[in-house]
Amino acid sequence: MDFITHYFSEAAINGYFETFKSFGIIIAFLLPFIEAFLPILPIALFAVVNVNTYGLIWGFIITWLGAFCGAYIVFLLVRRYGQHKFLRHLNRHPHTMKFIRRVNDKGVLPLFILLCFPFTPSSLVNVVAGLSTVSIRRYLIAVLLGKAIMLFMLSFIGSDIYSFVREPKKSIIVAIVLLLLWFTGKLLENYLIKSEAKR
């Protein structure tokens, strides 16, 4: 209990955010930007840290710009070099091929919906979009809006991180909500794959 009180008190958490702020806005932008290339990085954590460091509006904007720029650059790189031998195995993977056909038939809407959900493998969405026939302009709009919805949701939930320390029940509720969002995103992803497999 003393460990939790010492390292996770409101004062301690505030100190962590002040330390992060000293690294500057560039780092706050670069972390979600790099996540587009390394999806193992926790975009949800970056969103929470940024809004608690720079405030809800600016923290959200910084995270959103970083995530959007990274995602769109990945899309453009795949669109440009999609037939390169490094990416050719992705293009030929059965699940990827089914997803690409679905996007080619339905347009950018399935991609936009997936981008709205936290924990959707957005790197996969970017790659599929790059390999599909979706127009560059349409995907630009999808990424702008999809990332905005998803990141504002995470930013709003995590904007008052201190309340999780004061009210443990809130932590449980938020964990359940995030779990439901993750589960819903997975169901939607599986539905798109299965519906294409039936065709």
Please describe the structure with a list of short key phrases separated by commas or semicolons:
199 residues, mainly alpha, disordered N terminus
Can you walk through the features of this model?
There is one protein chain. Helices cover 83% and strands 0% of the residues. It is built from twelve helices and no strands. The longest helix is centred in the C-terminal third of the chain and has 31 residues, at 168-198. The protein has helices at residues 2-7, 10-21, 25-35, 43-54, 56-81, 85-92, 94-106, 109-116, 122-131, 136-158, 162-166, 168-198. The chain is mainly alpha-helical.
Uncertain residue ranges = 1-10
- Identify the overall geometry: globular
Note the main sheet.
none
State the end-to-end CA separation.
Answer: 56 Å
Number of strands: 0
